[in-house]
Design brief:
Helix content: under 10%
Largest sheet: 7 strands, mixed
Distance between the termini: 166 Å
Shape: elongated
Strand content: over 45%
Radius of gyration: 50 Å
Length: 889
């Protein structure tokens, strides 16, 4: 037997084949998020880890520094951010391979799945309306995602616990939410929620309404607003589902662009216009029912001057008539007064007939009231400042004008606004010598006066003539005087050369201006032709009206401001012209480069007028507005007047309340805002008319216009009856004006005493300082109660017999008794005051009808009140003018 032996080589205990001790696990990762695949192995020597995806080796940052995959020392593969795009995707099946010199080991497969969840639901739940107890379903198809998302539902932000509500609320396999029996508590907002590792998506909110018929939470109510402000018509309705609230206008269109429905409030219209007034209908509807209610929007429009007169300068002895027109709603109360006097002038107040353009109709066609004041024979005492005012319940407005009455000899002579200038023109050409004449008075005043009164125009008094070389010029076919007094010469000849003078004459004097015309052959050597250009292009504009800065008995310091436009060249100088009431024409005082000069010597017995012209290299401007010069004083009075009127203009008075009391008095309350330190006090204007049914449209009870009542006419302003009967009313009128001194800021009150009984009163306030008036407040209307007739007629009544069913009275004939003759008897109607249980039973009268029986009257339940005609309670004890009758006895 033979034996064979192999040599044995011992194996070192430090060498070992690799073994995977931690295998990677599959992951679901969101795109862009980091991820780690774990892998660890043991072996001797330590194995090297290599990763493979879908059988291909994974490139890590050890191979490529730009790689987003990092191989950790323990063998794990770390992804900085999972990628998935057209070029590269980290999704796939991964394995790790551990190897050393003795062998290798491979891990199990691990899959990286990139989670995805789209934003849009394939089907979102929709709003649903169901009645209580019925079945409700809301479907939901989640957005596409990987892995498929799981679904849940929320109600009003809280996750629905289907285990807790399994008997009534379930979710089907397709995600549909089913409520088997809807309760009121199920009402609310429902959201379908889809969730997977990629995130969570919420569907749009779905409203589940449990139907309840609409009901008013806050029904529409009538609203009164002021034009320009905001008006809110409330309309809040309850119900399930919450009813849809819609607005429409009855008989008109909604205010496009200015009306909006504010949830939970109503309809808001801003800014208000007069055309917005009307009836608005609010409707609230859901599936159960529709309810409607309307509200009236009344738009008050504060007065606005639509016809404003300008300052007036008028000759003594002439007729003076000026007017203003005030627009507003309700119809304004328009008036005239002279500043410094509390009296209102006897103006004719009437509606103004106006042609309404389409735009005015769209703006509401507001009422326009015109106040006309006329003086047939003016005197110097009528000079001064006049105020036209207008008030209604929305506010007040005023404007003032100046009236200057001058004696005839004090009117200025005519003014040549644009005089002719020297010209050199060729033979056969055309020449135009201008001579534009302004009226002898202030041009702006005359224009305003002419527009306001459609009457006197001072221009018609002036006569314009032209002369050539001292002889009056005769017109011909070649020489024509145009309507604007320009001398036009065509086909110039040598005989047209010479010295031309334009003379303007009137009863106030004569004013002249001269210019030379040179005519030369067109090819004449050394001749420079010059033609007059349009002065509006080349000459300066007139300077600002001059004013007297200071004056004494013999001199006045005059100042003015430069013109707003200098023309084709800068202004080089100014010329000051003046006239005197002593007669003569306009005189040149001086020509200066400054904007001030001293005019002297002057005579204090005369009055003067001044005007200024501006000169540049191309010509002279038209004259400025004519300003008067008054000697013996300083011009600070003008500045003081402006300061006072500016302070008054900054003061705003709002009359808040006017409340009558039983004792023929009324308490008024007002608020003053602005610069009240410039207010010395208030005028309280008060007038009344006899109470009677109003035929005009009313706002808050009455229009301040008082139903066509006139103002009282003070004796010192007496006028013909046609003027004093302002408005043509037959009502008695009382005026009360008081000074309320040092009112100060904040709310103030005043008690009006000694008012007439049973009258309609209108009151408004006017702030004043010294003799100057400010803007009037709004007006308020109130009614005084009737007088107590019990004391005056107590002796006329005696009770003859009183029983439970009737009463026999003896009444002496009353002054206001009306007798009706019938076949069997006389029926007398009495107006009596009656008290029931110490309370006035009528407002304000009770009428008793009865049949006469000698020696008295018997009444069988014929006592009726004016409150709907209901019979008086037979259990009451009634006191008839001092006599007591208890019907229970």
């Amino acid at each position: 037997m033979a034996f064979h032996f192999k040599s044995c080589v011992p194996v070192s205990t430090a060498s070992r084949v690799p073994r995977i001790v931690e295998h990677p696990a599959s992951l679901i990762v969101r795109k862009g998020y980091p991820a780690t695949l774990l892998c660890s192995a043991e072996g001797r020597p330590p194995p090297t880890i290599t990763w493979f995806r879908d059988g291909e080796r994974v490139i890590t940052s050890q191979d490529d520094p730009h790689s987003h995959k990092v191989l950790f020392p323990d063998g794990s593969l770390f992804f900085l951010a999972i990628k998935m795009n057209k070029k590269e995707s980290d999704a796939g099946t991964y394995t790790c391979l551990a190897s050393n010199s003795h062998g290798s080991a491979r891990s199990t497969n691990a899959t990286i799945t990139i989670a995805m969840l789209r934003d849009e639901f394939r089907a979102s739940p929709g709003d649903a309306s169901v009645s209580s107890g019925e079945r409700a379903e809301m479907s939901c198809v989640p957005p596409k995602g990987h892995p498929p998302p799981t679904l849940s539902w929320t109600r009003n932000g809280h996750t629905i616990d289907f285990d807790q509500e399994a008997d009534r609320v379930v979710m089907l396999e397709d995600g549909t939410l089913v409520i088997k029996e809807v309760l009121q508590t199920d009402e609310g907002e429902y959201v379908c929620v889809a969730t997977n590792p990629a995130g969570t998506r919420h569907s749009q909110r779905a409203i589940l309404d449990v139907i309840v018929a609409p009901f008013w939470v806050k029904a529409p109510r009538d609203v009164v607003g002021v034009m320009g402000d905001e008006a809110e018509l409330s309309c809040r309705a309850g119900g399930e589902p919450p009813p849809m609230v819609t607005w429409q206008r009855v008989g008109g269109r909604m205010p496009t662009g200015r009306a909006k429905v504010v949830r939970g409030r109503g309809l808001v219209v801003a800014p208000l216009r007069a055309v917005d007034a009307g009836v608005y209908l609010c409707s609230a509807a859901n599936k159960a029912a529709t309810i409607t209610a309307n509200a009236t929007l009344t738009v008050l429009t504060a007065p606005r001057m639509v016809e404003v007169p300008g300052d007036i300068e008028v000759e003594e002895g002439r007729r003076l008539s000026f007017r203003c027109a005030v627009e507003g709603y309700p119809d304004p109360l328009a008036y005239w007064t002279k500043e410094g006097s509390q009296a209102l002038l006897p103006a004719v107040v009437k509606p103004k007939d106006m042609f309404l353009t389409r735009l005015e109709v769209l703006d509401g066609g507001l009422g326009v009231v015109q106040a006309i004041y006329e003086i047939r024979n003016v005197s110097r005492e009528h000079s001064g400042l006049y105020v036209c005012g207008g008030v209604n319940s929305a506010g007040g407005v005023m404007t003032r004008l100046s009236v200057h009455v001058r004696p005839a000899h004090m009117f200025p002579p005519p003014i040549i606004a644009i005089p002719p200038i020297n010209q050199t023109l060729p033979l056969g050409g055309r020449a135009a010598l201008r001579c534009k004449v302004w009226p002898g008075a202030n041009a702006e005043s005359v224009a305003s006066w002419t527009e306001a009164s459609e009457s006197w125009n001072y221009n018609t008094e002036a006569t314009v003539t032209w002369s050539l070389n001292g002889k009056q010029l005769k017109t011909s076919i070649r020489r024509q005087v145009l309507p604007d007094n320009t001398l036009a010469i065509s086909e110039l000849q040598a005989e047209d050369e010479g010295h031309y003078v334009c003379s303007v004459s009137s009863s106030r004097g004569v004013t002249s201006a001269a210019a030379s015309l040179t005519v030369a052959p067109p090819d004449a050597t050394g001749v420079v032709f010059s033609r007059a250009l349009a002065p509006a292009i080349t000459a300066p504009q007139p300077p600002v009206a001059p004013r007297v800065r200071a004056a004494n008995d013999t001199a006045a310091v005059i100042e003015w401001a430069p013109p707003t436009q200098q023309g084709a060249s800068p202004v080089s100088s100014y010329s000051l012209e003046y006239y005197s009431s002593s007669g003569g024409g306009w005189r040149l005082a001086a020509r200066t480069a400054s904007t001030a000069m001293t005019l002297s010597p002057l005579d204090p017995a005369h009055t003067y007028g001044i005007t200024v012209r501006a000169h540049n290299a191309h010509g002279v401007s038209p004259p400025s507005r004519v300003a008067p010069v008054t000697l013996s004083g300083w011009g600070d009075g003008i500045r003081a007047e402006e300061a006072v009127t500016e302070a008054l203009a900054a003061t705003h008075v709002v009359l808040q309340q006017a409340t009558p009391t039983p004792s023929a008095a009324a308490k008024i309350t007002w608020q003053m805002t602005g610069e009240s330190s410039g207010v010395e006090g208030l005028y309280i204007h008060l007038h009344h008319v006899a109470r009677r049914p109003q035929t005009r449209s009313k706002v808050n009870g009455e229009s301040c216009a008082g139903g066509g009542a006139s103002w009282d006419i003070p004796p010192e302003w007496a006028s013909p009856p046609s003027v004093s009967q302002a408005g043509g009313g037959n009502y008695s009128v009382v005026r009360v004006m008081m000074r309320v001194v040092n009112t100060g800021p904040g709310a103030s009150t005043y008690l009006l005493h000694s008012l007439h009984h049973y009258r309609t009163y209108t009151v408004f306030l006017v702030p004043f300082y010294d003799s100057f008036q400010g803007t009037p407040s709004n007006c308020r209307t109130f009614h005084t109660p009737p007088a107590d007739t019990a004391s005056t007629q107590q002796d006329n009544l005696n009770i003859l017999q009183a029983r439970a069913e009737d009463i026999r009275l003896r009444i002496a004939p009353a002054r206001s008794t009306t007798t009706v003759i019938t076949e069997n008897s006389h029926e007398h109607r009495y107006s009596l005051s009656i008290t029931v249980n110490n309370t006035c039973a009528t407002t304000p009268f009770i009428t008793i009808l009865g049949v006469i029986y000698d020696p008295g009257l018997t009444f069988k339940n014929h006592i009726q009140t004016s409150r709907g005609g209901a019979a008086t309670d037979s259990k009451h004890s009634e006191k008839l003018q001092g006599q007591t009758w208890d019907k229970n006895k």
